[in-house]
Amino acid sequence: MSSNATPSKGAPVKSTGLHVGEPAPGVAKVDPIIVADNVTRTFGGLKAVDVAHLEIPRNAITALIGPNGAGKTTLFNLLTGFDKPDTGTWTFAGTSLAGVPSFKVARLGQVRTFQLTKALGLLTVLDNMKLGAKNQKGENLFRALLPFLWRKQEEEIEAKALDILQRFKLDAKVEDYAASLSGGQRKLLEMARALMSDPTLVMLDEPMAGVNPALTQSLLDHILDLKTQGMTVLFVEHDMHMVRHIADWVVVMAEGRVVAEGPPHDVMKQQAVIDAYLGSHHDQDLGATESENVEAMKELLHDED
Amino acid sequence: MGVDFWQILMNGAVELISPTTAAYALAALGLAIHFGYTGLLNFGQAGFMAIGAYGFAISTLTFQFPVWAAVLVGVGASVVFALILGVPTLRLRADYLSIVTIAAAEILRLIFTTNTFDPVTGSANGLSGYKGSYGDPVTREGAWGFAGLNPFPKGSYGFGPWVMDEYNFFLTIVAWVIVILAALLTWQLMRSPWGRVIKGIREDEDAVRALGKNVYFYKMQSLILGGVFGTLAGMIFILPRAVVPSNYATTLTFFIYTILLLGGAATILGPVVGSIIFWVLLSIVSGFIARAQGAGWLPFLSSVQAGQLRFIIVGVVLMLLVIFRPQGIFGNKKELAFVK
Ligand SMILES: Nc1ncnc2c1ncn2[C@@H]1O[C@H](COP(=O)(O)OP(=O)(O)OP(=O)(O)O)[C@@H](O)[C@H]1O
Ligand SMILES: [Mg+2]
Questions:
Q1: Most CB atoms closer than 10 Å: which of A106, A154, A191, B260?
Q2: A74 lines ligand 1 (CB under 6 A)
Q3: Please, are residues A167 and A222 in contact by the beta-carbon 8 Å criterion?
Q4: How confident is the model over A54-73, as a mean pLDDT?
Q5: What residue spans carry the region label Disordered (chain A) (predicted)?
């Protein structure tokens, strides 16, 4: 991994010209890495995901936004094989992934993190990282008994892990149990661990949630850095500042459907997005969640740069 | 003093290195792989031990197999048993495995107990006569089975409380060599990348899946490996005694869990030392109760009740140990600080 691509401090360079034709839900992309068709998932009577067509552009940063319960995490679970859809097909880099188990999806280079962080508590930070590396000889039961077969690879993996940990400012915690990390540090660890496998597509479910604002900027830089290194990023996020700042493309979901797509500045002005966040009954009393949505809306519409 | 404390202690010392202690240590080591390292709740370790016991005894008695073939039959049967348990349950939530294993072990025990297969299993009476014979003390003519493999000349071996005949001496050495080899194997595995995946699965299997590991496959390997340890333990367990089906009830599994938690669930030495403490303690306590009852100190107890009392006392002692040292003797206190 070329580690010295120092992230730019100023406004990040946005990738443009990703789509073909007018930005609208399901618009075709010039170079899609994921193409999903007719993906649905119901829980009881609730249609959690109902995506007719969606393409995710390659080597760009795509944000998936939408109010609570819009189906973002469920869509993540479906695309990564952690949940099975009722209907639908999708391809990743040209390979059909419908029905492929989650571990194989990861091996193909599509690696995810979880909204509820999954640090492996009673493993050290370093062991967490090493677990992320692919094609380890010593992970075979019989070769595990013959350390000379895997010791060299183990050293390489460790060097790589230490390098990534340093970039994520976790190098002081190498020997600590992951359970002793703070919530934000665990988010960082989970993301760092995902990078150990040199993925082509990184899917981050709310990478910023719980991360100390002082760390936010460096986390943003890490994500931008992934793009410079040639990876594709798809992330779910409620923090509109982050979305505006780093996303090249924004997909908006509401009630399971993709309701809008476009470059960050344009998409947030669309009526469908305003409806998604405010509900279509603007005139009624605003409950607690809705007033939060109003806050989110204000953030959306507020143009800072 | 009506009670001979010295003799009680000597009897306890015998358990320190007895083959039975080794057998429980090995079974607990298998459970450490399942529960301590992988997080698999196997409540059927008694079933794996029964397969070892019956696999070995039936192969020897009914089919006149040599020792190595009888061992292979037991191990093969245990792999099949692990597959039967694991294939349907390891994809499901952890608690399904525990229900299925406890039921399967009981089904096995009932099959071994029922009269239907009496000619082969000996039903409730069990089996004996599979230990083989030393043969002629000099020419070794007529030697067969496990006793026939004994390289030591006939006679008495050991010192102090550990004096035994050539059969028990040979058996003790074989039993502890197997335990040491199994412990070394486990130690090497758990410090390898394979062990890292296994421990990761214990912490959160979805996270390990998301990193591209075939979790189902690893859990199956763990179930088979720990089960084979239990099966070998079952073979060691029957070599100083006879095969009796009632020995393989669920209580056996719980004794092995007790040993595991006593020593430390995710440790290598824990199961071994846990088994030693368990057996020495049990022997000392029961010796003491028997003498005390004989001397009339416990007038309110019959001798049968007194025999049960040892499990109560051992249970209380173990409870205290687990309360005041919940990580076990060899467990890492630091790890425990994070147990939810
Ligand atoms: N396992 C499940 N069983 C039943 N309903 C579910 C399940 N998972 C999700 N849902 C429902 O599906 C809908 C979408 O949930 P999802 O977690 O995908 O939302 P989200 O967009 O990620 O929301 P948030 O921003 O709050 O994380 C919700 O209404 C939720 O209640
Ligand atoms: Mg979510």
A1: B260
A2: yes
A3: yes
A4: 94
A5: 1-20
